[in-house]
Amino acid sequence: MTQQRNFDAAALHWDEEPRRLKLAGEIAASIRANLTLSPEWDALDFGCGTGLVTFQLAPDLRSITGVDSSSGMIERLTAKTQKSGLSNVRAELCDLGKGELPTGKYHLITSSMTLHHIKDIAPLLQLLKTLLHPGGRIALADLEAENGSFHEDPTGVFHHGFSTEELTGMLEMAGFSSIVITTAAHVVKGDRTYPVLLATAQTR
User: Fold this and answer.
1) I need a labelling partner for 71 at 20 to 30 A (CA). Which of 1, 14, 15, 79 fits?
2) What is the Cα–Cα distance from 94 to 47, expressed in whole angstroms?
3) Which domains does the chain show, CATH number per domain?
4) Apex CA 42: angle with CA 40 and CA 45, to 5°?
């Protein structure tokens, strides 16, 4: 059984990985391509890390709140927000995987490469749904099902990606509709290429 990974130590140098920066940009672009973002929307970026996707989506939204269970990641995001001068980005330390709730209601909830670190996804999706306004949208990006070779260190990895059918079924069980799953990006590691899926859906 895997253990939860401690992301605090990695936070300081998290943004120094070019592959990570490229992936964040591609996921943000895919979210924009699949959803018509609105300057009247308040968004929540779950498992935001240092805010690589958070900051890219911020210009298209009224506000975006980055939520993460790692204090190190939240401290880094807060420092970056203060340096950027953006007034519509904020950070909140919160572990949704343990049922902790951020403040507010949202029109959009995004997540990038976080689901595979969550042991029990069904209750998390139910929780996320309660945070959305009626008709609110969700956009979840994560690895397509792979053989476990993506992570050199499997600590904190509870799922080796997800199939389209698996993501669809989980979202349907959580009460989402209008489910669309596309390929958002590809991550190249060595001689292998790993597709990253984006699942968008709407509250009923």
Assistant:
1) 1
2) 9
3) 11-203 (3.40.50.150)
4) 140
